[in-house]
Design brief:
Layout: E1 13-16, H1 21-29, E2 34-37, H2 42-55, H3 70-75, H4 81-93, E3 100-103, H5 110-119, E4 128-132, H6 138-146, H7 163-166, E5 171-175, H8 182-194, E6 196-197, E7 206-207, E8 211-216, H9 220-225, H10 231-237, E9 240-243, H11 254-268, E10 275-276, H12 278-286, H13 292-306, E11 311-312, H14 314-317, H15 319-330, H16 346-364, H17 369-376, H18 380-389
Parallel strand pairs: 1-2, 3-8, 3-9, 4-5, 5-8, 10-11
Antiparallel strand pairs: 6-7
Helix pairs in contact: 8-10, 11-13, 16-17, 17-18
């Protein structure tokens, strides 16, 4: 027929004056919902349209197989310009073989972005393999990544295929790449450069075709300077860079995410919670969410489970605990000044306190300035000005 009808994005009913069994079968194979020949009665088309609307796929329940827009419609929601830029970038880089480095605080959704890159690209029907480099002991991590031969070490009673081999033709997502030990950074560099590796206890080269996407909540540039991360590997991985802003920098997304998680957990828990009180929404929008989207999801899941009506109220959100958390976050450093009989130079004192707090914030966040700004309740521009003022 030469025309393909995208099933699930539109419902297509083919009307033709040239009826044949072959054309009917071809139309249905190409995605048409139904088939009608001329001449036809109005009642016939009304019945077909009614049936299509009742039983056909709905645009809100699109799947990855039916449209590439699912990750922009369902799994990641935003009104934030910064996130919209990321959404627009993902389709452009999805089919590239280049490595991707995703940075951002814990809980911002780095794995969601990695999955979207995989599912919108040419490898979407191949494996998507995930491993947290910081979640596996160093002595086991090499075997997990590259596999081992039988007898390679004590307890290796059978051969094991590594995750790079499993991910062949697909994508491997290395989360918390900053936790990767130096010894394995060398081996990973070889995979990136030569597309090959050797399993533990073996000398045979294994060739792989795999796209590498990595993520970190660390400042890798600082790790390179401290010689904790190989500079050559950093540049090989940092071909395409995506930084996901923390939730506190995009408060306009909170209502969208609240409703998304509310719908999700109301359905999972067989609840009828449909909305959230204005008071609770205001409290959520004023909160800094150090755990980002993951923390918000946890709050909504717990609150939905505790809800006794169709509206999330302060009591189901445990606002007393919530406020204690917020107070603790807004005052991360305690200092009780003492005013002696001799008095003090207030300007000098305040300048000293400010410099001390700036240093502590940078230490606590491992030098990540965006996180330090959030810890101090400052925007990035204000933090940069204060750091410059104090020569930090």
């Amino acid at each position: 027929m030469g025309v393909r009808f995208p099933r699930a994005t539109h419902l297509v009913i083919l009307i033709t004056a040239f009826a044949s069994l072959d054309s009917a079968v071809a139309a249905m194979k190409e995605g048409a919902w139904d088939y009608l020949t001329k001449p036809f009665r109005i009642e016939e088309i009304r019945e077909i349209v009614k049936k299509a609307l009742e039983t056909g796929p709905k645009p809100q329940s699109l799947t990855r197989d039916s449209t590439e827009k699912i990750y922009r419609l369902d799994n990641m929601l935003t009104k934030s310009p910064a996130m919209l830029n990321i959404f627009q970038l993902i389709p452009r880089i999805a089919s590239s073989p280049s490595s991707v480095l995703i940075s951002g605080e814990s809980g911002t959704g780095k794995e969601l972005v990695a999955r979207a890159i995989h599912n919108l690209g040419v490898r979407k029907d191949k494996p998507f393999v995930v491993i947290n480099c910081g979640g596996i002991p160093e002595n086991l991590l090499e075997s997990e990544l590259f596999g081992h031969k039988r007898g390679a070490f004590t307890g290796a009673d059978r051969e094991k295929q590594g995750l790079f081999a499993i991910a062949n033709k697909g994508t491997i997502f290395l989360d918390e790449i900053g936790e990767l030990p130096m010894t394995l950074q060398v081996k990973l560099l070889r995979v990136v450069q030569q597309k090959s590796f050797t399993s533990l206890g073996d000398t045979k080269e294994i060739k792989v075709d795999v796209r590498i996407v990595v993520a970190t909540n660390r400042d890798l540039e600082k790790e390179v300077m401290a010689r904790r991360f190989r500079e050559d590997l950093y540049y090989r991985l940092n071909v395409i860079r995506i930084h996901i802003p923390p939730l506190r920098e995009r408060p306009e997304d909170i209502p969208l995410l609240v409703q998304y998680f509310l719908d999700k957990y109301s359905k999972e828990q067989n609840k009828t919670v449909q909305g959230i009180s204005n008071f609770v929404m205001e409290a959520l929008q004023k909160y800094s969410f150090p755990g980002n989207v993951r923390e918000l999801e946890n709050i909504i899941e717990r609150s939905t489970a505790l809800a006794t009506s169709n509206l999330l109220l302060p009591e189901s959100l445990s606002l007393a605990e919530f406020k204690r958390q917020k107070t603790a976050e807004s005052s991360p450093f305690s200092y009780e000044p003492h005013l002696g009989p001799e008095g003090l130079d207030l300007e000098q004192f305040l300048s000293h306190i400010e410099k001390t707090l700036l240093k502590k914030a940078l230490e606590r966040t491992n030098g990540v300035k965006t996180e330090a700004a959030g810890l101090l309740g400052l925007n990035f521009r204000s933090l940069r000005y204060r750091l410059s003022k104090h020569g930090l």
